[in-house]
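Question (not urgent): is this output format expected?
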Amino acid sequence: MSLDTKDVERIVYRSLRAAWEKDRGGGIAPPSLIYVTELTQCLLKSWYNRAMGVPPSDEKIVVLLLGDDVHYLINSQFPLGEGEKSFEKEYNGVRIRGRVDRIVGSTILEFKTTSRIPTEPLSHHVDQMQLYFWLTDTEKGFLVYVAKTNGKVRVFEVFRDDEKIKELLEKAVKLSESLKKGEPPEPENSWLCDYCEYKSQCPLHIGSQKA
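Got this back:
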């Protein structure tokens, strides 16, 4: 896949908006800096986020704010460990940065608000934990799910997986190179596609609609 005129126009708009946002604490990270959350989703979506920055809908903003509020309350009142700590390490010339919800000794805690408690930890949340293990040189953590609809809480124990960590770190290098070259990476098909803001532009979705 390659850029077309509409893509370039949107990237220009994105750059102009970023210049305006920079005075308000925003801005765009350089291609050599990749965030953990960019590696736990489709790389094409992360690329589009960097290049075009489509703002979330009004409805999604409300959902995000509600989730942030619950998340903040949990973390601010949790009686053990240290909260909201940022970490950064380098892998093959790419800086990878993430912010851990809470560290208690050598154990990581990550809080997730959701409408429904899953029967097992979601794969992209586990991937996020793996990168946190790498950033903090730790081996174990807990994924804490809090349901906003019924108030239930469920905790899953997660352990370090060095093979998965290597796979995610290689994704960081791939995304960094794609951003440097201005060439979007290939899309990754998953259940998260149904919630993607760029679904109408994705080759996978366009192909399925034509079929």
